[in-house]
Amino acid sequence: MKKTKHTGPIKISKKPQPNLWASKIPFGLGKIKPHHIRDTMKVAWENKDNLPYAGRILTQGVCDGCALGVQGLKDQTLTGPHLCTTRLNVLRLNTMPAIKEDILHADIDDLRNMSSTELRKLGRIPYPLIRKPGERKFRRLSWDEALDTIATKMKAIDPKNYAFYLTSRGITNESYYTAGKVARFLGTNNIDNASRICHSPSKTALNRSVGIGASSCNYKDWIGTDVLVFWGSVAANNQPVSTKYMYAAKRKGTKIIIINPYHEPAMDNYWIPSIAESALFGTKIADDVYQVNIGGDIAFMHGIMKQWFEMEETEYGSAIDHTFVNEHVNGLEALKESVTAYDWEQLEKSSGLSKERMHELAVLLAKSKSAVFVWSMGLTQHRFGTDNISQVANLALLRGFLGREHCGLMPIRGHSGVQGSGEMGSDPFVLPGGEMNKENRKRVEDIWGFDIPEWQGDIVGVSLENAVLPEDHERKLQLYYMSGGNFLETMPNPEFVQECLENVDIRVHQDIIFNTSTFVDAKEAVIVLPAMTRYEQPGGGTSTSTERMVYFSPEIKGPRIEEARSEWEIYVDLAKRVKPEEQHLIHFDDAYAIRDEIALAAPNYDGIQHLKEKGDLFQWGGAWLCEGGVCPTPDGNGNLISVELPELRKPEGHFYVTTRRGKQFNSMIYGEKDPFNDADRYDVLMNSEDCAKHNIQESDAIVVYNKFGTFNGRAKFVPIKSGNIEVHWPEGNPLIPESVYEEHAGIPEYNTAVIVEKAETYYAQKDMKYVEKRVEELEVEIS
Ligand code: SF4
C-alpha cells in the first residue's frame, strides 16, 4: 500500500479576516466565554512552588492532557504555539509535592468525606500503603511487602480470577505494552483500558468497515477540506487547540457542520487565545448545526443516504462516487435495499430532523469533493455505538472521502494515552500488532517466548461485575489491579460499582493521587502503589495521538516523589515475584529495551525504537490509512454495512437523557460552572418549550428520575432538541443503568429515558431519593 508521509506543520496568514469574527466587541466583553488569561494566571499561582519544573514540562514534555498531541509547545499541524488550559489544569498533578503524613494516615471517614477534586489537590501518593478490613487508616508498607502480598494472592488463585485495568491519563505506551505482556505472562487475558468507555466502538466499527483501528487522516486534512463534520463531538471543549485548526480551516473556505442534540456554544463561537484576531474578536466556527435526537444519528445518516439514492434515480453519479465504489467498496446493493426500505416518517421521527434538513446535508456532501468526519462520545457511548460509526464510514465510502488529502474518518480522542493503550495490547481482544487471532497470537508468542492464554478475557465492566459472582464461579473476581481510574465516577450506577469494588478480596490502586474509589473497603486489603508521572520515568516514554503521531516525552529534571516508580517497572517486578522461575522472560533493562521490543511486536510501531531525544516522533501508517482507497481488509475493499434503526425505548412523555462535559478534563472537574454556557454542575439542560409544558420555569428545582436512580437539579433553558435533556458527567451517572453494553465493543450505554418533574425541594449534591416518584411510571420497561 502506498504511504505518503505527513509533510509537517504549515503556517497560517496573520491577515485579519473580519467575515470570520464572532463579535465586533473586543475580547467578547459581556459574553459568556472562558477567560484564558485569568485561568493561566491561576495555574501559574498553583504551580508557584515549582515554576521552573512546570516550565520544563511544558516546553520539553509531551502533553498528558488530551490526545490531540503536542510535544513541548509545537505540533505537526500549524506553526506557532500550542497550549491550552486543559494542559495547564493538569500540570499541577505533575508538580505538586507528596500528601502530608497526617492526611495520608487520617481516619478513613475523613478521607471519604472529600470529593475527588479535593483529594486531587492533596498531593501525590508518596509510598505504598495498605488498609485491611476493620482498619481505620492506611499503613505504610515497603515495596517488597506490597508486591509480595499481591504476588502471594495471585499465586493462590486462578488467573481468571484477577484482572488488570489501565486508565489513559499520562500513561505511556511503554507501560501499556508491559502491562499487556505481564498479564499474559501471568496467564490472564483479563486486561482492559479506558478506551473501552470512550472509543471502543470506533475501533470495532472502523475495523469491520475499512480494516483500520485509528484515524485515517490528519488534522491538516481539516484545513481546506470542503466540509468538516463534527458528529457528537465538542472538540472545542475537550481538545481546545483543535479550534485553532478549525480557524485555519475556515480561512481556507471549509464549511464546518455540527451534529449534536444541544447547540453547543463552544462549537459556535470561540476566542482562540493564540491567534490575535480571534483572541480579540472571536471566531465563528459552526456554519450549520443539526440538532439531532439523542440516539437519532443512525436515522439521520439513513436519511442522507436515502436522499443520495433518490438523487441517483434522477441523475446517475449526482451523489455517489461510482468510480471509488466500483473499485474499492463492497455491499452497495444490500445497503441501498436496507436504507430505502425505511420511509421518511420513520427517519424523521427517530432523528428528530425533517426530511428537508436531511436533504440539505445530503446535497452539501454530494456536491463536495472532500470531507472529514470527526466524532466522539456522542456517537460511541450508545448500545448501538458500533453501528453509529459504521454509518459514518458508509457515508465516507459512498462519497469516496477516504485515503486522500482532505478526506477521512477521525475518532477524536480525549486522553493522551488512549490511542496507544489498545495498540500496545492492554485489551482483552488485542495483542500488539493486531487482533487476538491464531496467527497473531503465534507471532507474538514467538517474540515473547511464552504461551498466551487462549480463553477470551473480559472487558472492564464485566470484570467489575464479576466481583459479585458466587465465590465458586470460574470468573469470580478476587483481585483487581487498577492503574489509575475511578470507576465510582466513570461507570454507570455508582451504588452498584461500589458494591463490586467492595466484593473483591484485594484491590490494587497504582496511581499518582487518591480518588474516591481508593477508600472503598475490600474483603482482604486495599493496596495503594505510588506511580511516577510520564515526565519522571527514566528513559522517557512515548504516547500516540489521535492522528497516529508517536511522540517521545523525555525524562525531565525536577523534584521526585519519595518512592514512586515507573509503572512498567512495577508490573515487571510483580510478575517476577509471581513466577520467579521464568523471570528472565519478562525482564526489561530499561525503557529503551521496551521500545526495541514494541517495534518487533507491533509492526506499525517500527520506528519507535529510534525515539530517544526530545522532539523525536513519527507517524505510524503514513499520512493516510486506506491510501488510494485500498483498505487493509482481506480483499482490500471497504465494506458498506447495513444497520437497522435502533429502538429508542422512550415512553411517551418521557425524556431522553445524555451526559456532557463541563469545565473538566474527563472525570476531573476544574470548575463548578461551565464557562461556555454558565451551567452549574447540577443544572439540567432543557428546552424552554418542553419546560413550559411541564410548568417548569428557568432555575426551578426539578427532579429527573427513572427506575435506576434520581438526579436533583435545576432547570436551565438552552437550545437543545425538544424531548432531550443533558446532565453533567459523572454527576448524572446514577440515572444510567448498569450492565447495558454495546454488542460488539462492550462500551456501556450512557443514555436512557427519564421522567422530569418540578420538585418540591432542591436536593442537589445530597444522596437522597426522590420520595414523590410516580411508582406506576417506574414500572415501564425502558431499557
Ligand atoms: S489541546 Fe490537548 S494536546 Fe493540546 S495542549 Fe490542550 S490538552 Fe494538550
Give an overview in words.
- A hairpin with a 7-residue loop joins strand 1 and strand 2 (139-140).
- The relative contact order is 0.16.
- The chain contains 28 helices and 29 strands.
- It starts with 35 loop residues before the first helix and ends in a 5-residue tail after the last helix.
- By secondary structure, the chain is α/β, with parallel strands linked by helices.
- The structure holds iron/sulfur cluster.
- Iron/sulfur cluster (SF4) binds at residues 63, 65-66, 68-70, 82-84, 86-87, 239-241.
**Morphology call:** globular
What is the strand content? 5-15%
* Share of residues in helices: 25-40%
Strand segment tally: 29
Which stretches of 5+ consecutive residues score pLDDT under 50? 764-776, 778-783
Number of helices: 28
Strand-pairing-aware structural class: alpha/beta
What is the distance, rounded to the nearest whole angstrom, between the alpha carbons of the first and last residues?
45 Å
Average of per-residue pLDDT values: 94
Which labels suit this protein?
783 residues, alpha/beta, 6-stranded mixed beta sheet, 32% helix, globular, binds iron/sulfur cluster
Question: What would a concise description of this structure say?
Answer:
The chain is of the alpha/beta class. It has 28 helices and 29 strands.
Write the layout of secondary structure elements.
Elements: H1 36-46, H2 51-60, H3 85-95, H4 101-104, H5 108-112, H6 116-120, E1 129-131, E2 139-140, H7 143-156, E3 162-166, H8 173-186, E4 191-193, H9 200-210, E5 227-231, H10 235-238, H11 242-251, E6 255-259, E7 269-270, H12 276-281, E8 283-284, E9 288-290, H13 297-314, H14 322-328, E10 329-330, H15 332-340, H16 344-351, H17 355-367, E11 371-375, H18 377-380, H19 385-399, E12 408-411, H20 418-423, E13 430-431, E14 434-435, H21 438-448, H22 460-465, E15 479-483, H23 487-490, H24 494-502, E16 506-511, E17 525-530, E18 541-544, E19 549-553, H25 567-578, H26 591-601, E20 617-619, E21 638-639, E22 655-660, E23 664-665, E24 668-669, E25 683-686, H27 688-693, E26 701-705, E27 710-717, E28 724-728, E29 752-758, H28 775-778
Parallel strand pairs: 3-4, 3-15, 5-6, 5-11, 6-9, 10-21, 11-12, 15-16, 16-17, 22-28, 25-27
Antiparallel strand pairs: 1-2, 1-17, 7-8, 13-14, 18-19, 19-20, 22-29, 23-24, 26-27, 26-29
Helix pairs in contact: 1-3, 2-3, 7-25, 8-25, 9-19, 13-16, 13-17, 13-19
Iron/sulfur cluster (SF4) is lined by residues 63, 65-66, 68-70, 82-84, 86-87, 239-241.
